[in-house]
Structure formats: structure tokens, C-alpha cells
Amino acid sequence: MTDTFVIVGGGLAGAKAAETLREEGFAGRLVLIAAEDELPYERPPLSKGYLLGSAPREEAQVHPREFYGEHDIELLAGVAATAVDVVEHRLALADGRSVTYDRLLIATGAVPRRPPIPGIDLDGVHTLRTLADSDALRAAFQPGGSVAVIGAGWIGCEVAAAARTHGADVVLVERAATPLHAVLGPELGGWFGDLHAAHGVRVLTGVAVERIAGAGRVEAVRLGGGDTIECDAVVVGVGVAPDTTLAAAAGLQIDDGIVVDEHLRTSAPDVFAAGDVANAFHPYYGRHVRVEHWANALNQGPVAARSMLGRDEPYDRLPYFFTDQYDAGMEYTGLHDPHDTLILRGAPADAAFHALWLDAERRVTAGMHINQWDTIESVERLIRAGAPVDLERLADTDTELDALARAPS
Ligand code: FAD
């Protein structure tokens, strides 16, 4: 009898785990269960190249269709897993079938939050998570059309940029004082706000949406201060929640996602979790960290696969994130605290700079750049060096980042 390994979730984490299991020589039965009737795909293009119409659908796919047959991976696409019995090691599927597993990986990702705003169920109100959502937005973004984006986080900002690039009139509405306030703070959030304003987006901050109005179909968004924004499409981008439905019902330990150790093992024997849904113990930070980013799914999938094979290796990569908005490309790595000190290095006015955060001991906790490619590894080395840095040298573009990592002052 050969072993059966089952992966639930046909996103990046699930597909990379399947690939790794075969690469690492797993010769048993391998089943990949994907609720969406699609080949497993990556989501970043859905708010960028694919949404803009510049990248084909296939570019988002993790592997071409033939890959699954060639690697003897049973891809059950369009079928959700509905229940897990962790004692019997059995999964129930929506089509009535059941699958017994020896090892199970749960990589169910996240789902968009839907705040209780009156009118959110009207036609023309969108969220963005799936290829189908991106298709619907592409159809909605027309030159001369008007789009209200609620929430200026990463998705909201990218969608605003895409809608604007399609020629729509765009209003970006954010409750906080700036876009991206919670993740980047006021100074950098303000920089992104200015970027959008410079591209013709009306950026409204410090204002809450009271209701979405329309007779069957969206016609306007009413703001807390009494203002009304007329629009023919609304995109709600107020964050995601880890999709723990299956895991919670199975009795796994849940705390902001599925709780896993540094080997991505859940509280149930032979059950693992990876990607957006996993709240993993991070050896570098000494605490659990849940990361909702592409690189985390890309790299946790393979680590989970090796753990399933008993080749335990801890997952200790620093969080990493990228975004593209108009002509601004950005990468961020590390994890900063809102109280950390922010140092800018370079020329924000020219959209070419680094931002670095330091803790009270002047150690770099995180860093990002705008259009300073091939430098993010240097930022990572600076963080991992874990030594105090000189603030003036850090801000001075004549001092190489790597020199600071090598020679702490
Ligand atoms: P997902 O990609 O969410 O995949 C999980 C899959 O599991 C889904 O297809 C879901 O349908 C399926 N599933 C759930 N429950 C079940 C079930 N019971 N049975 C079967 N299947 C199930 N990150 C960046 O770092 N940079 C970016 O620029 C960036 N851009 C993004 C743009 C968009 C529009 C979105 C939505 C996300 C973006 N991200 C970005 C985040 C990144 O895409 C996610 O971190 C990544 O998709 C997580 O992968 P995952 O495999 O964990 O989960």
C-alpha cells in the first residue's frame, strides 16, 4: 500500500507543495483539491497585468495543465473539501466523494472581508480575490466610467491604479489619515496618496463610508460627512480573513489562522498548513506570524511538503512583499512596529528611495524601496545582521547598505 497525501487548496501554496512532493521523490498517491474550477494560479496579476489586460490568463497559472498529468497529481478542480475527520484521516468532498489521507496539507488561503455596509450586496459592488473577480472588474473598468474604491490598502491602491489606467474616473476612500496607513505609517502612506493624486485619482482620507446607494444596482457611495460620490462600480478592499472554515470545524487550533509550529505542523497529527491561512511560529521573531503575501505562499508550500515527508526544516524567511502601482515598483521585507523610527534614504520626490525602520536600539527591523531594484537582499542582510546602525550613514546614499550590514557602528 502506498501512502496518500492530500492537499486542500489550489492556490500558490498548495501547487508549490504538490510540485515539491514529487521533486523530493514522493511516489505515492497525490491529490490536490481545489474549490475553484481553475488550474492553480497566483493572485498578484489579478490586480496588475491581468487586470490591465497586458498579461494573459496563463501567466497567472502556477503550472501548465500538462504538469499535473505528467507528475501524476490528481487535480480535483471545482470541488471543495467540506469536512476533515482528523481521527479517521478522511476528507469529505462537496460532490459526495471521500478521500482517506496519510498526510494532509491545508492551504485554503484567505477570503475578502465584507464589512456590514448597507448596500454592499447591490449589483456593481465587487471584491477582488479570484480570476472571476478580476474578469468582472475588467469589464467594469471603462474609459469614462466612474469607480469608487473603498479601502486604500494594497488591493484598494492597486485596483485604483488599474481602474485609472483603464481611463475610469476613480475615487479612493479611506477611513485612516492616509492610504496604507496601518502598514506603512503616515509619511509613506502620504507618499502613496500623492502618487495616486498625481495620476488623477481623487483620494479622500479620514472619511468613512456610510452606505452604498442604488436601486438594484450601485449608483453612489454616501460618506460619513454627508458627501455623495456618484459611481457605476464600487470595489471593496478592506482586507482578508484567513479561510479557516474547514480547519475550525475539524477542531484544529485556530488563532488568527491555523496555528502551526515552525515546521508548519498543525495541532492534529499528520495535518499541516501553509500560506495565507497559516499562523506559523517564526523562529527569527520567536512568536507566531501570519503573512498574507505571495512569497510566503511560494516558500511555505515547499517547506510544508518536506515536513509531510518527515524532513523537518523550519520556515524562517523574513516576510517579503511587493507591489506595482503606475510606474512605482516597491518591495518590502522584515516586520516593523508602528513605534519604530523611520529613516528615508534617497529621493522620494523622484520616486527612487529606500525607507528603513529601526527599533529603540537602532537595529533595522524592516526596509522597503521604491524603484531601487536589486537592493532588497541588502536590506535583508541589514536586518539579519541585527546590529545597531548609524542613522546618518543609513540615510546617506553614498554609504552602501551592505557596508552597514558588515560594519556595525
Ligand atoms: P490562495 O491563493 O487564497 O489559495 C487558496 C485556495 O484554496 C483558493 O483557490 C480557495 O478557493 C481554495 N480553497 C479554500 N477552501 C477550500 C476547500 N474547502 N476545498 C478546496 N479548496 C479550497 N502578495 C504579494 O506579496 N504581492 C502582491 O503584489 C500581491 N498582489 C495580490 C493581488 C491580489 C488581487 C490578491 C487577491 C492577492 C495578492 N497578493 C499579493 C497576496 C497573495 O496572492 C496571497 O498571499 C497568496 O495568494 C496566498 O496563497 P495561498 O495559496 O495561501 O492562498
Can you walk through the features of this model?
By secondary structure, the protein is of the alpha/beta class. It contains 11 helices and 26 strands. Strands 3-2-1-7-19 form a 5-stranded parallel sheet. It has a 5-stranded parallel sheet with strand order 9-16-10-11-12, with helices on one face. A 5-stranded antiparallel sheet has the order 22-23-26-25-24. Helix 1 packs parallel to helix 8 (294-308). The mean pLDDT is 97. Bound molecules: flavin-adenine dinucleotide. Residues 8-14, 33-36, 43-44, 46-47, 80-81, 107-110, 128-129, 155, 243, 246, 275-276, 292-295, 297, 321-323 line the site of flavin-adenine dinucleotide (FAD).
Q: What key attributes describe this structure?
A:
409 residues, alpha/beta, 5-stranded parallel beta sheet, 25% helix, globular, binds flavin-adenine dinucleotide
What's this model, at a glance?
This protein has 409 residues and is of the alpha/beta class.
Write the layout of secondary structure elements.
Layout: E1 4-8, H1 12-23, E2 29-34, H2 49-52, H3 65-70, E3 73-77, E4 81-85, E5 90-93, E6 98-100, E7 103-106, E8 110-112, E9 125-126, H4 131-140, E10 146-150, H5 154-165, E11 169-174, H6 181-198, E12 202-205, E13 209-213, E14 220-223, E15 228-230, E16 233-236, E17 240-242, H7 245-249, E18 258-260, E19 271-273, E20 278-282, E21 287-289, H8 294-308, E22 320-325, E23 328-334, E24 341-347, E25 352-358, E26 364-370, H9 376-385, H10 391-395, H11 401-406
Parallel strand pairs: 1-2, 1-7, 2-3, 7-19, 9-16, 10-11, 10-16, 11-12, 18-20
Antiparallel strand pairs: 4-5, 5-6, 8-17, 13-14, 14-15, 20-21, 22-23, 23-26, 24-25, 25-26
The structure holds flavin-adenine dinucleotide.
